[in-house]
Design brief:
This protein is α+β, with helices and mostly antiparallel strands. The chain contains 13 helices and 12 strands.
């Protein structure tokens, strides 16, 4: 399934929000999967969506949540199926034309989506929807909340594939459209604190989803008290990294803490998060560095000590690897950008 993988620079762009308007060149969306969460809110048109082997028919006002690492597609709903809506348990994704056609996918760099080279819908493509893509680990919410949402969402989907689809009548009282539109606006203007504002909107959406799942009979207590699996062990490790990022962290020690061999830990961590444990530690530290650059006038020597880097040179090298510029250049650029929109 590797050839269906959609690359995303999660270290530098852990949040995306945009409006997708279909054209013959960018629609339908071919089979692909990724390590991040994706949310689609349909504005116009009717679409046939697959997620793994499950099939869904969406009308305007409907929303679907794609869990990480799930192969999915988006296509226009054929005219003969316009009366259908919701989860279609009698249908199989393996019978859908996008998985039957032989066409090599390609990545559109503008939105990171995978679009067809030779497939065209053959019927109406006047489809428009809001998109949110994000790495759950990048949200500045409490680790306990993120762990609970991760477990709850996985369990809800496993219990019933219909749980990832939210029909318009089900969410009409929630500010779903407003939150997604607001996130897109923030990402477009990128005023100071835009990432925090978008993260807050995303957290609100995910909390609303959680409440719906709980109202449908999913028991959080049963999930939290279930025997620990590898993913739960990693969630505890990421929480540990968040708390001890300014200390010396060795991957071997973290593997020992999980009761795993170094090789198994490293392989499983990358499969779970789409990055190495070392990259994750760097990601957390760089986020702390950017906060200090934005909100203080501390010198880089002090910042390097506060964020777990060996010295100032180590901080600058790592920062440049992830951001493409030095900390001082980044602070100058961000400062000028914020003044533009002030």
């Amino acid at each position: 399934m590797d050839h269906y993988f959609e690359y995303s620079d999660q270290l530098n762009a852990p949040l995306e929000a945009f409006c997708h308007q279909s054209t013959p060149e960018n629609f339908p969306i071919l089979p692909h999967w990724h390590y991040f969460i994706e949310i689609i809110y349909l504005l116009e048109g009717q679409v046939l969506v697959t997620c793994e082997d499950h099939v869904y028919a969406l009308h305007p006002g409907d929303l679907i949540y794609f869990p990480p690492q799930c192969l999915h597609t988006i296509d226009a709903l054929p005219p003969q199926d316009h009366a259908q809506r919701g989860y279609l348990p009698e249908r199989s994704a393996s019978d859908c034309r996008l998985l039957l056609e032989t066409a090599d996918p390609q990545i559109n760099p503008e939105h990171g989506g995978i679009y067809p080279i030779s497939i065209h819908a053959g019927h109406q493509t006047d489809v428009k929807y809001y998109v949110l893509k994000f790495d759950l680990g990048s949200l500045p919410a409490a680790n306990r909340w993120k762990t609970q949402f991760n477990l709850l969402s996985r369990h809800a989907y496993a219990a019933n594939p219909a749980h990832i689809l939210f029909l318009a009548p089900q969410i009409h009282a929630l500010p779903v459209r407003e939150l997604m539109a607001y996130s897109i606006q923030e990402m477009q203007h990128r005023n100071y604190g835009y990432d925090a504002m978008v993260s807050a909107a995303v957290t609100t959406l995910l909390t609303d989803f959680s409440r719906i799942w709980l109202s449908q009979g999913i028991r959080l207590d049963d999930i939290l008290t279930a025997p620990q699996n590898a993913n739960q062990a990693f969630e505890q490790i990421t929480e540990y990294i968040e708390m001890h990022y300014n200390e010396s962290l060795r991957v071997k020690s973290l593997a020992d803490h999980c009761g795993m061999s170094y090789s198994y830990f490293a392989k499983s961590f990358r499969e779970t998060y789409g990055r190495s444990c070392k990259e994750y530690i760097e990601f957390v530290r760089i986020n702390k560095v950017t906060d200090l650059l934005l909100f203080t006038n501390l010198d880089l020597n002090y910042i390097s000590q506060e964020t777990g880097f060996a010295d100032c040179s180590h901080l600058i090298r790592t920062f440049k690897k992830h951001k493409g510029c030095t900390p001082k250049q980044w602070k100058r650029k961000v400062g000028n950008h914020n003044e533009t929109y002030s």
